[in-house]
Amino acid sequence: MWISRILRSSLIGLGAKGKNISTSKGLPKKLPIAGVQNVVLIASAKGGVGKSTVAVNLALAYTMLNSAFRIGLMDADVFGPSIPQMMSLEGIEPEVNEKNLIIPLQNYGIKTMSMGSLIKKDSAVVWRGLMVMSAIQQLLRKVAWGPLDTLFVDTPPGTGDVQLSISQNIPVQGAVIVTTSHSLSLADTRRGIEMMLKLKVSPLCLRPATCLHSTPEHRHCAGTPLSHSGH
Questions:
Q1: Nearest residue to 73 via CA among 101, 40, 100, 51
Q2: Are 87 and 73 in contact (CB under 8 A)?
Q3: Domains parsed from the chain with CATH numbers
Q4: Model confidence over 117-159: pLDDT tens digits?
């Protein structure tokens, strides 16, 4: 499979000659994604709170609000990608352009890419940290995202390597933190917000994912922002 060759060909930022640009403190220098103006993380400290649903709904809402908005959606949940199914893009293999960049899949006017589109369906991803970091770098740097006004990044639940890698490698304008009203979720959310602040990523809002109603055809979720960056 061609994508396997691409994933093996270059480990960006992991020692490949000419690829690792570091600061004096040993951290990688933040470089913007070509053609992408803004990057917003969709995060949650606990799984199962509706984070991916919020990510998809945000991307759709911006596109519906103004068709001129150029919106992208990146699924950074390497071990449990759900965006292809939610965006009705399952089973579609992306192509590459003349620059050997992956062409993102599109539906509803949204450029979308996920590790779930690059591996066989139902295949288990059993990777160590370095391979996960390489996969994230491929999704960031080896996909022809531009031109985009905003790229929403659906991150995996928790406070781990993926969030750290993204925030240290590219400029991030902020994060939408998704939670529920359950006390356990709120406790983990506090830790997630603290991690974002340490990474100098501004929490844009704390969004409780509250499902209003569900039908076989449509699932509607909404929430009220509880806090904004700087508060």
A1: 40
A2: yes
A3: 41-222 (3.40.50.300)
A4: 887 666 656 666 678 888 889 999 999 999 999 999 999 888 7
